[in-house]
Amino acid sequence: MDIKLFWLVSAMLLLTVLVEARRRPTERRRGNRVTPSRYTWTRELAAGTTVNEEATTPEDSNQMYVKSIDDRLPAAGFKKALLLYDFSGISPIVSVTLYERHRRGLPCYILDTNLTYSDVIATLAQRNNTDVGASPEISLDGSSPVLSRQAARELFDSNPSLRKACRGGRVARTSAAATASENTEVVKVLTLDSVLNLTIQGAANSTRPSRRGSRGRGRGSSRQG
Ligand SMILES: *[C@@H]1O[C@H](CO)[C@@H](O)[C@H](O)[C@H]1NC(C)=O
Ligand SMILES: *[C@@H]1O[C@H](CO)[C@@H](O)[C@H](O)[C@H]1NC(C)=O
Ligand SMILES: *[C@@H]1O[C@H](CO)[C@@H](O)[C@H](O)[C@H]1NC(C)=O
Ligand SMILES: *[C@@H]1O[C@H](CO)[C@@H](O)[C@H](O)[C@H]1NC(C)=O
């Protein structure tokens, strides 16, 4: 009887030690900021219209996820969007995913940036819990044909987190601003450092499934840069 009890107690002790040993590392990680750093700020779009924005930076990732999804954006003429600033690849890259992307079958848009990871971290640290005021306007054209599947795959391979940010879907590279045509629409999106006028394929064209790119072979879209 006593022997049995001894073994039972020993077994329970061993189990406790094992469970503790397994639990520790995650607790230590959590205490040690593996949870992403979070920054929030407000931005004034026009007199009296201020929106909330947020960025998170997963530890050791060289990336920032920016959320510009304030409900006051549409009334102010802006689109809600999620942005990824990815400095993990060879060249820094920004993706813009419009919130209404699914409904309208839009691609995610790829921008180049001259910002560096440390620029962005410094900017975020500075603006945490502050109002950033007005931002300069820039214009880019995102209405060009989406990347071919092959080109998109290459991009996702070199910047793996883009695959998730773009939901593994279609991708369009932006270029210097184009003149708008009747098939295009200009939407406004907030980036970290600008108000972006983004030319996209207009409503008339984007509700239909695209004939190019998504299935089968994309038309030879040129990869720049
Ligand atoms: C930003 O400010 C909030 C609120 O003061 C704070 O909890 C958070 O840790 C700050 N973020 C960073 C990354 O310092
Ligand atoms: C980056 O800097 C170069 C040289 O100053 C400039 O030509 C280019 O337009 C900049 N690109 C962006 C995305 O700001
Ligand atoms: C952005 O679009 C607005 C109209 O919504 C226009 O007034 C402004 O000039 C554009 N900015 C640039 C840099 O093209
Ligand atoms: C958009 O649709 C119109 C017809 O509705 C077509 O003529 C035009 O080529 C399309 N544009 C693009 C960029 O697909």
TrEMBL record:
Biased composition (Basic residues): 209-225
Signal peptide (UniProt feature, chain positions): 1-21
UniProt keyword terms in alphabetical order: Signal
Highest taxon of the lineage: Eukaryota
Species the sequence originates in: Candidula unifasciata
Record lineage: Eukaryota, Metazoa, Spiralia, Lophotrochozoa, Mollusca
Annotated stretches, region: Disordered: 203-225
UniProt KW Signal keyword: yes
Designated name of the protein: Secreted protein
